[in-house]
From TrEMBL:
It is found in: Cytoplasm. It comes from the Bacteria. One of its GO terms (cellular component) is cytoplasm. The lineage of its organism: Bacteria, Candidatus Wildermuthiibacteriota. InterPro entries: P-loop_NTPase, T6A_TsaE. It comes from Candidatus Wildermuthbacteria bacterium RIFCSPHIGHO2_02_FULL_47_12. Belongs to the TsaE family. The keyword Iron-sulfur does not apply. Keywords: ATP-binding, Cytoplasm, Magnesium, Metal-binding, Nucleotide-binding, Transferase, tRNA processing. This is tRNA threonylcarbamoyladenosine biosynthesis protein TsaE. One of its GO terms (molecular function) is ATP binding. GO terms for biological process: tRNA threonylcarbamoyladenosine modification.
Length: 172
């Protein structure tokens, strides 16, 4: 069983074009955030040149998707407080980190949970334009609801509650 406190070698993931699955078990929100921070740094180092990088988050309510996204944003260098976009659907954060050579400009946090027709509503909000910009990194909670409009090279992150504050996180 891999714990999040071990050194994470997420770079060997699908980020380098080879589909490998990694599973982590966390026992606190802080550990969940730490797994996400490492993943964010790996994404910054390997971002695709032709379109936005998309992280698709899937799991039941309370399984850690928002906590993970908060850690992911911190790993990208976002200094603002990351709030769930459940009621407003989407939040955009400017990336001001200068310690990487990529031209990433924005981090989008999208939540598809409350959308009645998630595909139609996201397209109306300009989702295709967001995805087309290689300067964007996009995290989508409840991404399974919009799977058909996501790019093929999405990085999927699955969450499962194991016990109180314990979860498994599978990255593929």
């Amino acid at each position: 069983m891999k714990k999040s406190t071990e050194k994470l070698n997420i770079k060997s993931q699908k980020l380098n074009g080879k589909a490998k699955t990694k599973k982590f078990f966390t026992v606190s929100p802080l550990e969940t955030e730490n797994v996400a921070k490492v993943l964010a740094r790996a994404v910054l180092e390997t971002q695709l040149a032709k379109s936005a990088r998309v992280i698709a988050l899937v799991g039941e309510l309370g399984s850690g998707k928002t906590t993970f996204t908060q850690g992911f944003a911190k790993g990208l260098g976002v200094r603002e407080k990351i709030l769930s976009p459940t009621f407003i659907l989407m939040r955009r954060y400017e990336l001001k980190t200068k310690n990487y050579k990529l031209k990433t400009r924005y981090f989008y946090h999208i939540d598809c949970y409350r959308l009645d027709n998630p595909v139609k509503e996201l397209l109306y909000l300009g989702f295709k334009k967001i995805l087309a910009d290689p300067g964007n990194i996009v995290a989508v909670e409840w991404a399974d609801r919009i799977k058909r409009i996501l790019p093929k090279d999405v990085l999927w992150v699955h969450f499962k509650n194991m016990a109180e504050n314990q979860r498994s996180i599978t990255i593929e």
